[in-house]
What does this fold into?
Amino acid sequence: TGIGGHPTQHPLTAKQGLRRPKSTSRASSRRVLVLSRHCMSLRKSTKEQLPGVTTGIMGEKEAKAYPEKEGSKKAGYIIGALIIVMMVVLYPGNSDMFTSGPKGPPEDLSAVTWNMAAINNNPFEYWITNDDPKYGQLMEDVSEFINNPGDKDVPVSAVFTPAMFEELCTAMTAAGFKDVDQVKTRWETEYKDRKIISEFIKDGTLGKKRLASMPDRYTNTIITADIPARTVTRPTVINCYDDDLGSVEKWWQAWKKFVFETEVVVKDRKGEVGSKKIKDMFSPIKNSKYPAITVEEEAISIPLQTMCGAIFDAILVHMMTVLAPDSWQGLRTGMCDKLNRKKNHRTVEILETTYKDADIQFLQEVAATFIDAAGARPLVTTHFDLHYPLAIDKDRNQNSLILLKKGMFTDVEEVTAKVIQKDAEAAAAAGKEAAPLSNGDLFVVFATRVKDNAKFILASFHGDTNGLATIPVVTAVKNFAMAEASDRYMLFGMDANTYETPSKDQQGVTPFASWYTSEKMNSCYGPTPNPKNYTTFHARTYLQPQLNKAIKYSEKDVKGDKNPKDFIVFWDKDYIVRSTTKDNTGAGVYTEGMVFPTLAFPSDHGITWTSLALKPAVDLGKPTSLRH
It folds into this structure.
């Protein structure tokens, strides 16, 4: 039995793709049994059309009380038997006639949805499944260092020395930073004597002020606007910096040069391209947005965050050289190769092998560089046509895409803007907010299937972290489909970001299912998905700037993000689910209880694959007649 009560396909491998198990010598008897059951369900669905026929099979008392119904019952059996004989005679060698899928009805189409997760610049941010024992030892040692530092909890000035601070002030003054003297005063009175772990790294107020995380956001990894683009990384532990950081002294020389001398070509908020030094990329931290920072600190927030960013990076390098001086950089290089530099290669590989037989691939949080990487590989040259939004966001790298099997669909037309416009108009008329969307989050297309001229509306969507945008966005697509595409089958792959046990500001999976069911939709996991049927399982480590989100490895099962987030949604009147499987290995297999990403599976979301059959109707007619 598979997920959500649906039987599963045989295990998938990258070599096998989505092949179904071959029929056995029992195929004939099996298809007779399946057809018998289908005829019985057919009688149930015809109570409105056939006089004297009630839902279900009558009991003895009911048959005596209503003899005309008993006659109809017998007539139904006779008709069913004749159909069985006819099908067996006409199709004696077609072993796949009724056994092509685990549920019996033949597959109409199959689809995959996968939040590939934007490339993570920090290979240490999440606990990963790594077979190298040195990784596990290092990360456990980091947890212990931060949670029980003991005599390792030295003053800041023992790591980021007074001499380094004076050099920093000189550089900031030369760079034109204002109020450097005030930062000097705060160094003397607030910072130099703080303990590096308990009073700096783990200081919750400092974290809320964003004095270390904000400079990291802007300078951790920079994709330049050059042609071709370059990747520029800050000298720090928490990215894929290439050069040697074997000591705090080596780090400091590289860090000063990077911040105050390195110049990059970037695009500003207005879209204009220009050259800029790293020091000029820091932005003020506003009290209005981050209330923890005082008005006085806001006024000096550029030099203050520069100092705090330097202290933060110095502490990380110091910690790694204390814990694993000979191995940490090699570990990072190997992880960067798999999770960062070669992530596009691996994701393309998974899609073009294990899932090459799917009809539709819905992808979310896709980096713009993936499009070029996929375009040169069999994924696009042989198997699929790749479609992406006209308003693709090349900076956020959180775009939704749709891949359609080559030769299967035609007349593909993007209608994303029309969906958004119609939703905005409806919201304005009702005095409400429109669905919250950024460029690339939602991608909607019309398409026509070549073999039978069936028309589709297809959508791919990546929700906000708490899932609160999911229902508004699905509503927008649903309303557009009802108004402008009522003759089309709807299929919607999404990262819904739903939660098993939601907090007040999170979207629960059970309320989400109740909602889509009430709106006459269904999903690949059925109308009542199991809240424990997880498609994510990740947990942040202590090697990232938001330590309030960090957890110990031993706490991952309790505190990790382990939730059912990924869905394929459709009109309930159109389809039934034949089978649904999920995957966190890239080989069609989901390993429960395993944190991911892994070195073989570079995403924090599992893949969901589903096989759908047209929903049975009274006349067993053409697909268009099945819609009621």
Q: What stands out?
A: The two ends are 30 Å apart (CA to CA). The chain is about 35% helix and 15% strand. The mean pLDDT is 84.
